Each structure stands twice: as C-alpha cells, then as structure tokens.
C-alpha cells in the first residue's frame, strides 16, 4: 500500500513489457497486488511488477510492509473466486512452496527488467 506524494517515480510493467509511470492521484492509495493474492483469487486480481525511478532530484521515502504466512499451511484458490463452470488455475500447495516459486520469478525478473543505463 502506497500513499504517493507529488514526487512520484512509481512505474508498473504493462502487458507489452513497457514501463509506464503510475502518476500520483491526490487523496488515494496505490495497492500493489502480490502473487499470493493472484493465486488465491484465481487471477481475478493480478500481481503487478513495479519499480521506482526517482529522477526528480528530491528525496523519496518508501517503507515496505509485508506480512507472512504459516509456511506449513496450504495455499489454494478460494472457492468464492471460481465462477460456475470455471476451473481453478492453481493447484493447492504449501505456503512455503508458493513462496519459493515467487522468489524464483522475482530474481528472474530482476535480470529481465534491469533498469536502463
């Protein structure tokens, strides 16, 4: 969750593989949906690849907030997120297996989407 100020700098990766600016909207929060939310909602909400590029010359302060899971608990699609006749897109796995998969994709994306120099 992010309360953006006028400095901005947040960028998201669109489906064409281009970084686009997420311009601040006064009085609103930005909520970046993570992979776990994508999994349990059966892709109703999609994880967003994002980064910050601050070229303003002004300080930009960010504080990340994460929450954890019991790594032995199962992670599956919520029944309420599967419409009649729709298939579950994800198998049930432990939270640990899900976390390891997410980390693997994260490190791969760092190599693929390194900032331009």
Describe this structure in words.
It is a single chain. By secondary structure, this protein is α+β, with helices and mostly antiparallel strands. The chain has helices at 35-40, 95-112, and strands at residues 10-13, 19-21, 50-52, 74-75, 93-94. The strands form two sheets. A three-stranded antiparallel beta sheet has the order 2-1-3, with no helix packed on it. Strands 4-5 form a two-stranded antiparallel sheet. The longest helix is centred in the last third of the chain and has 18 residues, at 95-112. The chain starts with 9 loop residues before the first strand and ends in a 5-residue tail after the last helix. The model has no long low-confidence stretch (mean pLDDT 84).
Q: Average pLDDT, to the nearest integer?
A: 84
Q: How do the helices and strands follow one another from N- to C-terminus?
A: EEHEEEH
Structural class: alpha+beta
- State the total count of DSSP E strands: 5
Largest sheet: 3 strands, antiparallel
Question: What is the distance, rounded to the nearest whole angstrom, between the alpha carbons of the first and last residues?
Answer: 28 Å
Please report the number of helical segments: 2
**Can you give the helix content as a percent range?**
10-25%
Name the poorly predicted regions: none
How much is the radius of gyration in Å? 17 Å
**What is the topology, as strand order, of the major beta sheet?**
2-1-3
Shape, per Cα inertia axes: elongated
Strand content: 5-15%
